[in-house]
Specification:
- By secondary structure, the protein is of the alpha/beta class.
- Among the domains are: 240 residues, 3-Layer(aba) Sandwich (Rossmann fold); 41 residues, no CATH class.
- The protein has 16 helices and 13 strands.
- It has an eight-stranded mixed sheet with strand order 1-2-4-3-5-6-12-13, with helices on both faces. Strands 7-9-8 form a three-stranded antiparallel sheet.
- Helix 1 crosses helix 13 and helix 5 packs antiparallel against helix 9.
- The N and C termini lie far apart (66 Å).
- The relative contact order is 0.12.
- The mean pLDDT is 89.
- This is Abhydrolase domain-containing protein mpaH.
- InterPro entries: AB_hydrolase_fold (IPR029058).
- Keywords: Coiled coil.
């Protein structure tokens, strides 16, 4: 990358996994995250107010594929007079570089990073997530409402209802996708013939070939070089880990009669008797969108099957509209001609939209910070640490000890 120095980190994952089958027995506390920190070469002395971006990946794609977007952001931010402190992005535990680190411990099934590196990530922080990564950042903002000042959600897989057969549009072809090639060159030639990959920005495709594939041997494919001396390659994120991110089986994989194993354990709207898979988190996050505090920009692909007009409208209007939310101030941008993977197909359009939004958000953050500090620091420290007279005037006079209602409360 022309504009950044890249620092690799390895961080421990949370010690408990949600599903027992997500890890092999004995590996519950051993999973790690592969994290990359991008530091602008021109900003070796960051100042207060320099923005930190927290990225989150789409399902099945390594974190390095967003580097063209980071380069584009840097150039556009510089023209806008805004400085980047750094960009942080991790592969989720079961995919990409993290999946390689955890290869022996994975089964078939972000806040920690900001805590471990908090000295290098002061406010303001802005999240940029693509696809399921956007869902992860929305969830993070619900867990820690003030951690991220703003959110950029790029064609998020947040769904109005619990996904059933509609998610098969992604899981079905991935179930039968090719995952072994005689060489990296052969894989690149195969991708070049595919309309799916032809839609990507060439810079993104190059990074997919470099980081989306890994050489054998692996745990699944222990073989080495082929007879002609070439080294075969396979997917860095295994096919199993990709499809199990789309949907989970709602049947007992150990039962010979394949009866639904969750019958009677989940609400009726989660399970479809005719379709033995489920993935309720996408709809769960939609129901929580009113409580999202950060201001949000949605970037949708006009041809994305996950973002029909009614869905786009529902997400945008719901975001921040609740009592705990940041107000109904979510914005929407529709990128014409783009599918679900907008960030890979239309890098320049996404970069332009992000910087326009981020500039406004940073201007607002700076103004609010200055105004707060001016008012707050206008009073002495001892005053700021106590209940003031304005509080007492508004809460009312001290109650009499003889008041019956007070005695009853005590």
């Amino acid at each position: 990358m022309s504009h950044f120095n890249i620092i690799n980190h390895t961080s421990r994952c949370q010690h408990t996994r949600h599903w027992r089958r997500a890890v092999e027995p004995g590996f519950e506390s051993s999973l790690k995250l592969a994290v990359k920190q991008y530091v602008p070469k021109s900003n070796d002395e960051p100042r207060a107010g320099d923005v930190t971006f927290v990225g989150a990946i789409a399902n099945g794609f390594p974190k390095e594929m967003y580097e063209p977007l980071w380069d584009d952001l840097y150039e556009r931010m510089a023209k806008a007079g805004k400085r980047i402190r750094g960009i942080w992005i991790a592969d989720v535990a079961h995919q990409g570089g993290s999946g390689v680190l955890n290869e022996k411990g994975l089964g078939n099934d972000l806040a920690d990073d900001s805590k471990l590196h908090q000295d290098e990530m002061p406010a303001p922080l802005i999240g940029i997530g693509s696809s399921v990564g956007a869902v992860h950042l929305a969830h993070l903002s619900l867990l820690h409402p003030s951690l991220l000042h703003s959110l950029v959600l790029i064609d998020p897989t947040i769904q109005i209802s619990n996904p059933r057969k509609d998610f098969a549009a992604f899981a079905l072809p991935s179930t039968y996708r090719r995952e072994l090639w005689p060489s990296r060159k052969a894989a690149a030639e195969s991708f070049a013939k595919s309309k799916y990959y032809q839609a990507w920005n060439p810079r993104v495709l190059d990074l997919w070939i470099k980081h989306g594939l890994r050489e054998l041997p692996t745990e699944i494919y222990p073989g080495g070089k082929s007879g002609n001396g070439e080294t075969p390659v396979t997917l860095t994120t295994t096919k199993a880990q990709e499809v199990l991110t789309y949907i989970r089986p709602a049947y007992n994989t150990y039962s010979p009669n394949d009866k639904l194993s969750f019958e009677g354990m989940l609400p009726d709207d989660v399970l479809d008797p005719t379709y033995p898979f489920y993935r309720p988190e996408a709809a769960q996050i939609f129901r929580q969108l009113p409580d999202v505090k950060p201001h949000a920009l949605y970037i949708f692909g006009s041809k994305s099957p996950l973002s029909p007009p009614e869905g786009r409208k529902a997400k945008t209007e719901a975001t921040g509209s609740g009592v705990l939310g940041g107000g109904k101030r979510a914005k929407e941008l529709l990128v014409e001609g783009a599918g679900h993977l907008v960030a890979f197909e239309k890098v320049e359009a996404v970069g332009e939209a992000v910087v326009r939004f981020v500039k406004e958000e940073l201007d607002t953050w700076e103004k609010e910070k200055e105004e707060f500090e001016r008012r707050y620091m206008s009073r002495e420290r001892i005053e700021r640490a106590q209940i003031d007279e304005a509080w007492k005037e508004r809460i009312g006079p001290a109650p009499s000890k003889e008041r019956k209602d007070v005695k009853e409360k005590l």
